[in-house]
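I hope you will forgive my troubling you with a question about protein structure. I am sending you one protein, given as its amino acid sequence and as whole-number tokens for its backbone shapes. Thank you for your consideration; the sequence and its tokens are set out here:
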Amino acid sequence: MAIVELCNEHCGVTLDPDRGAHLLAFAWGRGDERFDILRRCPEEGPTQGAGCFVMAPFANRLAGAQFDFQGRLIAVPMNHAAQHAALHGFSRDRKWEVLGKTATVVKMRTNFANPLNPFAYVLEQTLSLQDDGIDVQLTLTNTGQVAMPFGMGLHPWFAKEQGTILTFAAETAFGRTELGFANKPVPMAPHGGFADGLDVSTMNWFDGHFSGWNSRTATIDWPPRSLRVTMTASGALSNLHIYAPDDQPVVCIEPVSHVPDVHNRREFAPFGDYVALAPNESMSGAMSLRASCWSSTGGI
């Protein structure tokens, strides 16, 4: 399947159905002067560390690649041996089918079923190009024979330059274990830190989860470019996960549906739980990214 491109006067996107419906690029600007809001993926080969991919039927990690659900031990393939975990689900590298395409909208689907995996589902992604950004809609349906715990998320890799500011508010911030699992929920202060905006280009390595993200909004600003992107989430995407490596020019701002490994850490269910779907039941969530000109003196 050929790579899909959508573009208009202000922005353009590129997707690859054969590589997990991965959003390879999202650029903003006019004419030839465009800025890659997401770190651009190569048109061939691995997509790790760039663009944006879908996480399903869970987001982040599952410890030991197994968990108990309704009296059953559910074991899934382990794809992160170093952390003895399953990571980011099973749809990010699969081939997707293009169901339809117009000048501004592309709809894709993947049908996941594997005799070695207890999850079976259909996942649809619709990406719509707007004058000032993009909308991404996800719908996941349980096609298995029994109820299963589902989750989802999106994993965008935003460009990080000197002075890049990330701002959002949440009620609860989680600590992190050595293996990358959320622990020790603590109240997030209403002022200071991310609530007032942090320069992520000067942060040490960071990997953290946040719940009570009631506004479902986050902004990322590139002041030297007078550019702001506003992320909004809806539906099942109630939580926010931030990954900011200090050795790469990226910051990941991930709207997700649940706390990492909540399947095993049931004490964290009140902060963001999976969704138990009976056969043929569905869940959905959406992310919007809107770009605008901005300045620290009041905006444009």
Notes: Residues 4-293 form a domain with the Beta-galactosidase; Chain A, domain 5 fold (CATH 2.70.98.10). The chain has a mean pLDDT of 93. The first strand starts at residue 4 and ends at 7.
